[in-house]
Amino acid sequence: MDTNRTTGYTLNGSTVLPLGSTLPPPRRKADPQQVRVRIRRRFLLALLAPFLVGGLIVVAVLFALPSTRDVDIVPGAAVIGIDGEDVAVVVYDDSSRPGLFEATFQMRVAAFRLSDGEQLWDQRLNEDLAGDAIVLAGDDTSVYVASEHGLVILDAATGAVRVQGADVPGIGADAVLSASAYGYDTEANVVVALTGSGALVQIPVGDVTAVPAEAAVASRWRSSLDAGPFLDETELTRQVDAAVTPGGTTFEIVSVAEAVQRDALVITSTDPAQVIRTEFVDATLLPSVGREPQAGVLLSTGQYLPGDFAGIDEDDLEALLARSLEMASPADNIVPAAGAGQGMVLVQHKESVNADRMLLSSVDIATGRILGTAGMQTDALRALTGPAGTTVVITAAPGAWSANRLLVVEEDGSFRPIDVGTLPWWVPRFG
To answer: Is the distance from CB of 132 to CB of 231 less than 8 angstroms?
Structure first.
């Protein structure tokens, strides 16, 4: 056979090799140390294999499934001017914060540049499960937030806490730990604070030191601030059936077919004089309102009458009541329409008479034409307008049951979403 030419054959217990060939070298004896090493490696591989396979399965599942976040934006947001641009500063409750060294429940404040949606910073305020907080004001240097931990002054560039609570100069240990004890006076451009001794102090926006409030500021805010545990947010979140622009154009929601919730938006303009109607289902208007000082008087009966009663004797009950009825006129309660500065009005409505889904539409003031529409899971929380004229609406994205995003109203009437509380892709999965 051919194989005998190279390997030979065995005859009577001896190996016979072909002519010209040599005896193959003897098989080398295995090193006992190397054998033990190979046995250990195989044993460890067999031991770790289930863990490696299980880990790969877990990682694959984490990447395949979307990361869920439980974020709830509170109404007390603000749009402030930073470096000449509108920046939305929002406070939100985060009850799903991932990370080994992160508290599960947090109240946080984040800043977003509205021109491109970029998040500038995101700062933890406290580790409360729930509470009240409101962004009061801000400028290029500082952002002022009132919370149940007192006044918090943040750095506008980084979000870092500059000073808070009892450490605020001019307030100190007299600080009231309640969000309802603080306000922002637009006329004087100062943050107003009620102290534990009952005095009112003010902090010029951009500063951190409180000084005694001016007489006019104190008069406007004395009946509006308190140390109560709850912040009244009803004014911030209300929707209306009538609104107006500074130029005199009015907007009104009128019923067309009440049985099927059919409404019409009536736009009445003066220049040029015209009336435009656009029909919706179950429509309301989003106003542009903030937390303003609420003047009023407390009657001897314990009833509080909101309004300006300057020049009327507080003991003249009849005159006070008559003035209160005058101020209750619907014409006096018409508020500015959100988006009017961009030439549009914002209408919340249903998709159809049989739908539960809510929509937000922008309507051109000049023509009544619908410019853009965005879907929402629930009612819009609030609309805000910044110093540069950008309007943004706090909403719940479809599928979310709490407010978790901002809708920026573009110049063409379309809506650009900004998600709040988002994290880098690896954080929700690996912390």
So the answer is: yes
| Bond prior to 18 in cis (omega within 30° of 0) | no
Tell me how far apart the alpha carbons of residues 365 and 133 are, in angstroms, rounded to a whole number: 34
Q: Enumerate the β-bridge partners of residue 348.
A: 284, 360
Rounded Cα gap, residues 324 and 314, in angstroms: 13
Beta bridge partners of residue 111, listed in sequence order:
89, 121
Q: Which residues pair with 140 in a beta bridge?
A: none
Q: What is the pTM of this model?
A: 0.79
* Inter-CA distances, 142 with 80, 81, 92, 153, Å: 10, 11, 19, 6
Per-residue pLDDT of the chain (431 residues; tens, 9 = 90+): 444 445 666 666 666 666 666 656 666 666 677 767 777 778 777 888 888 887 777 666 555 544 556 899 999 999 999 999 999 999 999 887 766 566 778 899 999 999 999 999 999 998 776 679 999 999 999 999 999 999 999 999 999 999 999 999 999 999 999 999 999 999 999 999 999 999 999 999 999 999 999 999 998 898 889 998 888 888 899 999 999 998 889 999 999 999 999 999 999 998 778 899 999 999 999 999 887 776 666 566 656 566 666 667 766 777 777 777 766 555 556 789 999 999 999 999 999 999 888 999 999 999 999 999 999 999 999 999 999 999 999 999 998 889 999 999 999 999 999 999 887 655 555 55
Q: How far apart are the C-alpha atoms of 299 and 303, rounded to whole Å?
A: 5
- Residue 62 C-beta-side C-alpha neighbours within 13 Å: 13
- Positive or negative, the CA dihedral 375, 379, 384, 385 is positive
**123 phi, psi to nearest 5 deg:** -120, 135
